[in-house]
Amino acid sequence: MSMHTTLRRTAATLPSSTSSILPSSQIITAQSKSTSFVCSQCRHATLLRRPKRPYTFTQLVTLSDGSSFTHRTSSPTPVYRSTRDTRNSLLWNPTSSKLMNVEDDEAGRLAAFRARFGRSFDANAPAAEEDATAKKEKEEEIKAQQAAEQQEEDNLLDLISSFGQQEAPPPEKKKKW
Amino acid sequence: MAAREPSRYLARGLPRTFVPSARSQAFLNRRNVSDEAPARRLSDQLEDLETASSLTTSVSESAASSFDPIARSKTRKTQLPRGRYQFRSPKYDRGPLHPHQPPAPSDPSSRLFVPGPFALPRAEQTYNSTVASDILTLCYVHTPPGFKPPPKAPRLREWDDSSPYHKNRPLRGPRGGDVLRLLRKPIKFNNIPKIERITLHSYVKEAAQDNSGWLHVAGIAVQAISNVRVETFKSKASVANWSLVPGRDTVAVKAELQGENMYHFLGKLIDVVLPRLKDWPGVKGSSGDSSGNITFGLEPEQMALFPEIEVNYDMYPPKMIPGCHITLHTTAKADKDARLLLSAMGIPFYGKIVQ
Amino acid sequence: MATGTNGARRAVSLLRPSRLDFGVCRSCQETIGRRNYASAATSESTTASTTPSSSAFPVVSPVYTINAGVVLSRPPQITRDLEPFEKAYFFYQKRLNERLALPFTKYFYFKRGTPLDEDWKKKIQARQTPARDIGKYNAYAQDAWNDELLLGAKESDPEYQVEQLVLDAESTANATSQDTSKKEEIPRPHPRVTEADKKGDQKSLNRLLPRTLYLLVQSKDGYWKLPSTPIQTQETLREAAERTLSQTAGVNMNTWMVGFHPAGHHVYNNRKPHADKVTGAESHGEKTFFMKSRIMAGQADLSASAEKLKDFKWLSKEEIPQFVTQQYYSYIKNMLADR
């Protein structure tokens, strides 16, 4: 290999006044692509190296809103579920009021705290900020929670889903693979 | 080559009567465009074509279910020698005049063959179906018929012949710098900007100071996120503080992504990785090399957010995951167009947008 | 035949006098005139010819009503369905890749002796390859040449491949979890065919997810068209298009108008010129210029429309010819996306 490269270099550094006897190699190999040397007159054999490519899997990526797509990746995990992506990040949804108001509460600790101790400590500040729709949402949620305590889980799901349809058209379901 | 050769000899060897005489037929069935034109219809020409593709051909159920190539090959008394059914490409290219030629790289039997594509990437489909046509509409500039643009000054200035030494001098570069910018042609249907390739580059200065392990880790990390084997590079600069000597220390890895790999990486980057970066404002608005290539960087802790590194984060030695520069090469001739394209694909920009 | 007509057309175009003078819109003609003034030093003859048109612009004899139209579209939401050939091709390339790519480095991802590793070994024995979406195939075995699918095999289907991925993830989760009582359930992707597709609801935006949908409205006379209204005085095309959209389809939509230039046009000639009762001006027909627009959220609502529109539909390119006239479709078809 080392000899092979030096030969190439000498071929490239030869003065161009020497007239080439053979036409330059027509077949573009990976070797000649990767090196920047111009081989004007090669009389030796060129090793045809097999291109090395890592093993790739097909992976199913599920975004936070349930849309999913497949891509090729080197990781062997069959399904990747993301919690934070373009569908729920503020930078990609600058006008979304839902994302604006929500605190960085991925683990749900703040919510758990509020559920236990109430939210009187910040009662003033968010009331001024929140617009009417957000308030409405909160009330609906509380109602839904109260109803859910008495009823089954399925009924809660029904309530939430029906609430969404009354308020605004449901977000377009996206699914890509 | 040898297989194609006999046809010539065959034609020569056949008796005269079998060889169709092209001349007499052409004379008898002489056709003019004028008398044929109204009678010819598209449906007449289509009659020769097969109506069904081979993929939709119906085969009887019994024939399909009983077909078992493995069992058939085992019933053969003597197996064919390998060389009879498998062509092996020569290992060396011995030049164009050598009788033993390797097959073309697109041939699956070639040693250089790269299979693929394996899928139709999502980002590519979005570009083709939505982004490209929107960019075309956005960038349309109306020139009424008969409009002649005002003449522009030549890009390279001539010398005023104030001195006799100006004779035969090459032309001067533009005023205010020697850089000759790319010509930005109006965007038409055939030059809509698109993403050409993506380069991941990672410079690991510890590779020169400490040991080569840094470089191996960097190479594996970049390969894991890009699905492409990296190239390594030696340092060109001499930095005494980092004990860098030009041409001696291998300090950088680079992976070039094109085609399907590129679109998969872009989709993954935009949809999964970039939103997870903490307090990331976006790509800086002044980024770009003013010829349509945008670069931004990822810190080591941001690199670790790629799902491919996350899945076996423990296997990478602690604190040895490198940062990297991601360059998005587009076919746009100006940064303005490149930013339009990339923001349409979902990359946010912040700060003052420098055109 | 094609060459014949082309030749004839070319000959006609040569015989015809230059259409530049009357075929150009007013603003364009003014622009040409201005440009020529700027470069008057270079060519004096052109200035002389355009002077009358820019100074005292005569009323062009055929008068048309100028409309602003909107091509409101919903871009494709999901990737398109693959053709059978594409499926077969991708599958074949994947099996070729098995043989040609570097082997999977198992110990970089699974530590020896862990439950994940055991699970991986078991699965590799079953399917003989690290990949989950190419069926049972060992590229390094004696019979690796048998890499083509038989008739009716499902392995090349994307739905089947995704199902395999999900099943694999589920079985791994079940095999490695501590409590065996609970079964892990990984949600499947949403179906590619929605309820609106099944019902044939052409008013829903959730139909035909892999295609671009266009908003068509039915006027009070009963014919279908893209929303359009006459441009009022002192109004740019874009403003008129935005007004058209809010007047016809309501304000309950989040839309984005693409650029400031129309993407297409439609010319309608009346059989006889209509005379306007108020001004007495004759109208020879309508010219509609369509601006491109994208809908992000919301839904059309015709209750407040000023034109008393009857109905609206979201249609793909293939469905539009069933509703509009052939002449109208021939004008608009080239600005509609293929997918």
UniProtKB/TrEMBL annotation, chain A:
Q: Where is the Ribosomal protein bL31m N-terminal domain?
A: 50-95
A single Gene Ontology CC term: mitochondrial large ribosomal subunit
Q: Mark out the compositionally biased spans (Basic and acidic residues).
A: 132-143
Tell me the superkingdom of the source. Eukaryota
List the residue ranges of the region (Disordered).
123-177
**From the UniProt record, which GO molecular function terms apply?**
structural constituent of ribosome
List this protein's GO terms for biological process: mitochondrial translation
Q: Which InterPro entries match?
A: Ribosomal_bL31m (IPR034600), Ribosomal_bL31m_N (IPR048874)
Q: Which residues form a coiled coil?
A: none
User: What name goes with this protein?
Assistant: Ribosomal protein bL31m N-terminal domain-containing protein
UniProtKB/TrEMBL annotation, chain B:
Q: Which domain of life is it from?
A: Eukaryota
Annotated region Disordered: the residues are: 30-109, 149-173
Pfam families with a match to the protein in the record: Ribosomal_L5_C (PF00673)
Keywords of the record, alphabetical order, are: Ribonucleoprotein, Ribosomal protein
List the Gene Ontology MF annotations in alphabetical order. Answer: structural constituent of ribosome
Q: Which residues form the Large ribosomal subunit protein uL5 C-terminal domain?
A: 251-349
Which InterPro entries does the record associate with it? Ribosomal_uL5, Ribosomal_uL5_C, Ribosomal_uL5_dom_sf
User: Which ranges are annotated Polar residues under compositional bias?
Assistant: 51-65
Q: What are the GO BP annotations of this UniProt entry?
A: translation
State whether keyword Ribonucleoprotein applies: yes
Residue ranges with Basic and acidic residues bias: 32-44, 155-164
Identify the GO cellular component terms for this protein: ribonucleoprotein complex; ribosome
Mind telling me which PANTHER family this protein's record contains?
60S RIBOSOMAL PROTEIN L11-RELATED
Q: Family per UniProt? A: Belongs to the universal ribosomal protein uL5 family.
Q: Name it.
A: Large ribosomal subunit protein uL5m
TrEMBL record, chain C:
Region Disordered: list its residue ranges.
171-202
GO CC list: mitochondrial inner membrane; mitochondrial large ribosomal subunit
List, alphabetically, the InterPro entries matched.
NUDIX_hydrolase-like_dom_sf, Ribosomal_mL46, Ribosomal_mL46_N, Ribosomal_mL46_NUDIX
- Select a single GO molecular function from the record's annotations and give it: structural constituent of ribosome
- Show the Pfam families listed in the entry: MRP-L46
The similarity comment for this entry is: Belongs to the mitochondrion-specific ribosomal protein mL46 family.
**UniProt-recorded name of the protein:** Large ribosomal subunit protein mL46
Species per Swiss-Prot/TrEMBL record: Penicillium angulare
Lineage summary: Eukaryota, Fungi, Dikarya, Ascomycota, Pezizomycotina
